[in-house]
Amino acid sequence: MKGRGYDPIRLSEVVEKQVIRPTLKMPLRRYYRFRYSKHYGGIYTADAVGCNLRCVFCWSYRYITNPNLGNFYSPEEVARKLVDGAAYYGVEKVRVSGAEPTIGREHLIALIDQLKHENVLFILETNGILLSDEAYAKRIANQDNVHVRISLKGGSPSTFHKITGACEEGFELQLEAIRNLARLDANFHVSAVVSFSTNDEIRSLLLVLKDIKDSLVTTFEPELVVLYPKVLERLMKANLKPLLALTPKGEIVRM
Known about the structure:
Elements: H1 8-19, E1 20-21, E2 28-37, E3 43-48, H2 61-65, E4 71-73, H3 75-89, E5 93-97, H4 105-115, E6 121-126, H5 134-141, E7 146-152, H6 157-164, H7 169-183, E8 188-193, H8 199-212, H9 215-218, E9 221-223, E10 225-226, H10 229-237, E11 244-246, E12 252-254
Parallel strand pairs: 3-5, 5-6, 6-7, 7-8, 8-9, 10-11
Antiparallel strand pairs: 1-2, 2-3, 2-4, 11-12
């Protein structure tokens, strides 16, 4: 890729070698914890290690930049922990968070397969960059037990570059993933980090989404950066000031 910043596809390849361990059966992946969360009305979560972006505001920055943290688990082990945790807390949704779950596609597909006959919905939270590969997107879209949430990093290529450090072409990869999922009639919706975007930029983004599929506008989910102490420290160091953000207590603040 051309332009300023790192290539997220290349970074995906580097990170995969660090957080995925091939085996004769199915690849293992690094995870650092399993937990219940109130998101989506209650969900049980596996927090993974490693990402192909370096978002300054990421709450899990330590675990996306340090590939040696956590332990390796098989898809079967992760699925069992998710199912058991969901049953314990009385919820029917599970997810992988804290990282980019599409890194290590065979591990992810095997995990989804393991959950297929369980009474849970797997919510795939992803930046979508690797789903710009239509063949990969098709393997996800064909799964009945998966809902995809693509999180756009900003509302334009320039904002994407500013808050992730990646080349602007990475934003187009995110949009291509959305186009792929729309063509494949997948179960998905789009969110976007809007803390660093003007109203005009968000309006322009919504027009792009509407052109892809009308329902993407009605289901659009705006995201605000949460100002955890370490996040605020990184934002100040990078001289980045969100227009809107959330305090750790969930209060909206203008900066």
